[in-house]
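Field guide to reading this record: the first block holds the primary sequence, the second block holds the structure written as discrete tokens, and the final block holds curator observations. Each block starts with its own label. This record concerns Tetratricopeptide repeat domain 8, catalogued under organism Pleuronectes platessa.

BLOCK 1 — SEQUENCE
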Amino acid sequence: MLASLWGRKTKIYSLLPLLRSRTHAPRLQPGVQSDPTAEQRRRGKEGTSSSGNYVDGAPPPPLLPSDRGSFPSLAPLSANPSSPPTHAMEVTMDPLFLAWSYSRRRKLQQCSDICCLGLKTRALTEMVYIDEVEVDQEGIAEMMLDESSIAQVARPGTSLRLPGTSQGGGPTAAVRPMTQAGRPITGFVRPSTQSGRPGTMEQAIRTPRTASTARPVTSASGRFIRLGTASMLTNPEGPFINLSRLNLAKYSQKPNLSRTLFEYIFHHENDVKNALDLAAQATEHAQFKDWWWKVQLGKCYYRLGLYREAEKQFRSALNQQEVVDTFLYLAKVYQRLDQPITALNLFKQGLDHFPGEVTLLTGIARIHEEMNNISSATEYYKDVLKQDNTHVEAIACIGSNHFYTDQPEVALRFYRRLLQMGVYNCQLYNNLGLCCFYAQQYDMTLSSFERALALVDNDEEQADVWYNIGHVAVGIGDLTLAYQCFKLSLAFNNDHAEAYNNLAVLELRKGRIEQSKAFLQTAASLAPHMYEPHFNLSILSEKIGDLQSSYTAAQKSEDAFPEHVDTQQLLKQLRQHFAVV
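BLOCK 2 — STRUCTURE
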């Protein structure tokens, strides 16, 4: 009997880190307005008004200006038409204070147009600033040409590059979908979440379908070079600051200006070499007692790939001043060196100095999740929610874990909480639809999927939603609708391996063996990290008498999921048959 994805829970979407706030129509608020004609109204009621144009002697209420622009505003006429209109005296603000006002209100372009050197460099830096702690994406060059690892064959549970087995009773690959790296899909998309450590260049270039962030399109150095081209847009005649003519030794002795200049060179110009020279001279001028400059030196060394030098600078900065960001930078260095245990100990050391810090707790939970220790990750995410009950990543990951552990009702509560917080996107409604279906709340299932289809941004999301609707159709027994949904999924995304696998099962039920075999081969080539297409192809080949192909496919299924009992039994039968022959 063929195994398909029907026996497995469908794929829960990872929520995007970008929140979309709802837009509300402008609302008029009641207020009390002063009426300058109150005395005239009182006199009109007493019959003293001589105009005769008012009803009961009361003047009409004054016209309020419309917020929606329905009527044009009327300008009052002057007493003498020939006299020029009087204008109010124009009050100008000091340019420096105006520039500070623009900077505080995040109007950075207006700020850079009028402000001086220091504030302009800060405004230009803020335009292209990227948080170095969060954004860390490994490209092909970093994955394949990395020689900074300690051991190529690490022990299980001590490396982020080995898939490992499920720890702490977490869901297996039969229940929870896996990425190409062998880790379960997380509940929240972040940089390098789904990226794996490929063993070959072909595997690195191959596009896994499990997440859009899994493909290493280019190296990180190329991305930083593209970010550095923002300096060409500052002035058509050239860059704002000519770094080749800049006297770094002079500016390094000015503490108020050197820090702003360093951030401009590092983030806006992306000139790591000059930024490193400026940081080194400023550190020397501060007699090696300024922890901030040591952190900047560590960031430059990390950008250049000198991880051990970056570790020394961050360690020295922590000895002088314990700051949360320094703990995060140093932990990122250890993760790049593939030392997750050291990073965990560092985070726990930081929690001793900063109890209940959300970023440190989140870092521990992420490392446990990448090491396939889902139960420990869930506990730390719960600790995060105790400190910050609006943390989107923690809520999404806990909800995803409850869904894949056969608790859709509990997962539904977490996703409803996200909906109440203002998260309004396709992924959330897709997850709500799946939770409602498995919680047997069928009245909300299709409406949630309709909302998800209305909020899709690209064809990949459209394909995933139709794939999940196909699972709902399989659950209610409508195989014709399921066949159409899987076809629609392939129409939007021709690389959808799960849809190919399920279509192969439906084709086999109709007796189309060749079509089913073709679909299974396509699914196996598109997603070699999935065990279902390999196992189904092995069963099908064994039934039609192709034992060699069946044995090869069964071995691939065992490599993808070593704990699969049916694959082990099939391999045992094939080996016994080959031994008899």
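BLOCK 3 — OBSERVATIONS
Residues 1-9, 15-89, 194-199, 207-223 have pLDDT under 50 and may be disordered.
Residues 104 and 514 are 66 Å apart (CA to CA).
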